[in-house]
Design a protein that fits this description.
By secondary structure, the chain is mostly helical. It has one domain. It has twelve helices and no strands.
Length: 304
Amino acid sequence: MSGPTVQTPDAPHTPDGPAPAASGISGDSGAHGGGAPARLRQELRAIHALVHRDLLRLAGRRTHTALMLLHPMLYLLVLGGGLAALIPRASLGVGYQTYLFPGMLMMTVQTPAIMVGIRLITDRQSGYLRELLMAPVSRATLLLGHCAGGTMTATAQGAVLLGLAGTVGLPYDPLLLVLLLGGMILASFTITALALALAVSLRGAETFHTLLGLIMMPLLFLSGGFFPLHALPGWAHTLAAANPLAYAVDLLRRCITHRVPDQEAATGIEWAGRQPPLPLEAGLLLATGIVALLWAARRFSRPE
């Protein structure tokens, strides 16, 4: 079973990756003379420009986006459909496709979120990042813009997969969809922040790819997305308890149970035999993302 394919993005100076001046990052000459409000507007304009760049890239690369979505869809419909006939419902509490759905949502948002880190490295290697750093905004703002753009594009792709909820036996309940969307936003933010924290520490995209190959498959299999965590050996439970993806998958699965009580799946993360409260899981995910982003901003603020 292969993990999600992470592809190296195109060169930054393309129609869907405009130069800083075209993006609106470079401010007017009077931005520095207007005090704190003008400075804040300048920083927000920079974040907006970077998010806009990522959304333009997403809209302009429809074939690439469709291929990225095809992978989790095949897992869900083909692998999930095939194993559903072999895995008894009693062992999971729900049908296997329903059980697999939160894991596939996570796989969908994971790949575009990780690609933000790859783009940061390739932007540095191509010289595009140096041009961005000439803009009259802080480096932390630029990093926040990259994180916001990656979070939005990853969530947008995950939202497409929500359209398959009915095929796995879930109702198109508006509140359920909102809860799942909120969970994906939180997971996308955390994964993007972790990817940026790794990217600012590395110089080469090859090293980044190698590390991803080493850690992504273990993180996926220890997330509870494919099979219940209680089926793992005892030593793996400790690793799963430190896995952010496991909390994200469990959060999505428990959102489903909250709105559809008859779809209560096997338990995920446990501390001393008890599940942590749902708000605590969400808080841990958010805290992990914030800490990773702050650490990345500190590293990124150092002169090249």
